[in-house]
Amino acid sequence: MASTAPALDITETIELDVSGMTCAACAGRVERALNKLDGVTATVNYATERAVVMDASADPARLIAQVEKAGYGAHVREGADDTWSSRATEVKITSLRRRLIVSALLTVPLMDITLVLALVPAWRFPGWELLCVLLAIPVVIWAAWPFHKATFRNLRHGGVSMDTLVSIGILASFGWAVATLVFGFGGSSEAGYWLGFGATPAGADAIYLDVAAGTTTFQLAGRYFETRSRRKAGDVLGALNALAADDVRISRGGTETVVPIGELRVGDTIVVLPGESIPADGIVQAGSAAVDTSMMTGEPAPTDVAPGDRVLGGTVSADGRLEIIAESVGANTQLAQMAAMTERAQARKAKVQTLVDRIVTWFVPVVIALAIIVGLGWWWAGAPGERAFGIAISVLIIACPCALGLATPTALMVGIGRAATLGILIKGLDALEASSGITTVVLDKTGTLTSADMRVQTVDAEIEEHRLWAFAAAAEVGSQHPIADAIRVSAMTHVTDLPQADDYRTIPGLGITCRIDGRIVAVGNAALMAHVGANGEAMTQRIQEGAAELGHTPVLVAVDATVVGGFTLSDEIRPEAADAVRALHDQGLKTVLLTGDSPAAGRRVAEQLGITTVHAGIVPSQKAEVIASIQQGGEKVAMVGDGINDAVALATADLGLAVVSGTDIALKAADIILVREDLMVVPDAMRIARKTLSTIRINLFWAFGYNVAAIPIAAAGLLNPLIAAAAMSLSSVLVVYNSLRIQKLSGSRRR
């Protein structure tokens, strides 16, 4: 009996940049179109304008063709090369700006002319109707083309969006105006009556051009502001590729060769010189060095590595030559996997539709249906056809969501602008939505609550203290290590003149030795003391135990093979940290300290700041797990961090806040970026995010309530479209005014 070999799963993941989407409904339409293809599973992220496709045929051409068939544009995304999507966004913004300027320049005189001539017939001149129509045509056709294009595309696929209502309102009001002004259809020789104005001259009821032009201008303004606010959407993989090494030095057969990173294979011997980035995860085979791991761990003190120790790609050898056997390369490195995890976490969060999308989903088709029903109802009730048609158009125009369209982007722009003046960069609506209901703020210690610069905290000397400072500082002149910098800076306040030193010898991962006045001085860790055969086990043990208790880093000093004293160092707590934590507590928020440091170091910082919950000794991969465990307890979590090790946690949290001094990948993963070098920016960010979100909700409530209240008036035949246009303008002005109130928020001050 013949056996059949199982089919191989050769499904390939393809990433596409998608252009032309104007709302979450568009993303859903693209996703449905892609999923119709055989062997394809696709998810489309509207926030990042990106599609991730699992395609068994591995044929990008058919995917792009399917997206284009649905009416959108697509391009294969290649690593960090985001040129296509950046160019598409820039073209869109430029086009909207150009259309908005032209529309505004033509709409202002058009509205003036139509209003004046509608109410003062004596000023009407031959051909005034044609002049008004000619002024309106560029606005209604060219400037409003993005709305018409989206409407035609949606209708071809049996869908509607807010663009549909805008387009129909513009075209209907323009068409009715042309029919009445130019062809006399539906015109009346009798005086009219405008609610809120009174009796009007004959023919005034027929002028709708300002409605069409005004609607176009307001909607273009809203779309332009919204698109600008979305331009700063982050790209985690782009940040990763910017951080990763492009080339690698490989040792083969005793010869070192620099090759592109793509040629690196598992098992290759990598050579890393001082100051170079380690290109892959691996095991040190030869050499020793202090490795700067702050990029991965966020912690300031370099890690000493020697043969047999594991190192991670993306970290930097500070002062030694290393030979490393590559174990994980390319997408399998911890750095790449953390970036991928961050990307997935962001995608899950971005799938939540915005408030406007949820409202428009049912609001648009209901309004269209209502306008048709009202028109038919009046006609069946015996009203003339032109009057019934006019009332139906009035319903459509009064329901046209000008204020609804401006409610979100206007508040977003004002909120983002005010936040920027306070040193806070809010990426978009997702960040504001996420701020709602936050109950707990998780704070990363190093680089966030602390300065990340090492400082000498305690001194223990068996000789005169100033002599200990002199020996240590003179020796550290020959080192570029961060701890050496800290000792030299602190020594300036204790000694004025340093003795001359020579015969410097740096021992990577251990410390430094030199000769001062004929005496051999060694400054470094306990391993260095053992290396030089220094006596003084009691002093060494006392300093190390004291450092461990306080969560500090110990540095020992030996003179002529005898330990004569030492220092403990740590990163300093920012002076405003306690006030910032207190301000968060005043907002009713709980605070949690999260750090990769020792439990002693974590407790020390928490006690000084008034934080009761501490998670210490957390490795990078565990930070997201801690966030998830807090969320499982029913809390909504905001995370504040700065390092790559914080990126996954920032994306996992309900709201991620990254300090600008952090790495690019952390900034890309965060919802809010904190630029101001003052921790009071954290409570400020929470306050302004909540205020902006509440303003958006008030705007939406007003805009939606206005439509609901005005539609019955229009359906009763009591509302002329010009009054509807004025009401729409007033509604929009109120929305903008309410949004501008965000500017009154001031920054928090230290107590």
Number of strands: 28
The number of helices is 26
Radius of gyration: 34 Å
| Widest beta sheet: strand line-up | 16-28-27-26-17-24-25
Q: Percent range for helical residues? A: 40-55%
Residue stretches low in confidence (pLDDT < 50, at least 5 long) are 1-10, 232-241, 345-354
Beta-strand residue fraction: 15-25%
Shape: elongated
Termini separation comes to 85 Å
Query: What is the average per-residue confidence, as pLDDT, rounded to a whole number?
Result: 78
Q: How would you sum up the major sheet?
A: 7 strands, mixed
| Structural class computed from helices and strand pairing | alpha+beta
In total, the number of domains comes to 4
What does this protein structure show overall?
The chain is of the alpha+beta class. The protein has 4 domains: 12-78, Alpha-Beta Plaits; 87-231 and 352-412 and 694-744, no CATH class; 245-330, Calcium-transporting ATPase, cytoplasmic transduction domain A (Distorted Sandwich); 451-572, Calcium-transporting ATPase, cytoplasmic domain N, CATH 3.40.1110. It is 50% helix and 20% strand. The chain has 26 helices and 28 strands. The strands form 6 sheets. It has a 7-stranded mixed sheet, with helices on both faces. The protein has a 6-stranded antiparallel sheet with strand order 8-7-9-15-10-13, with no helix packed on it. It has a 6-stranded antiparallel sheet with strand order 18-23-22-21-20-19, with helices on both faces. The chain is elongated and about 110 Å long.
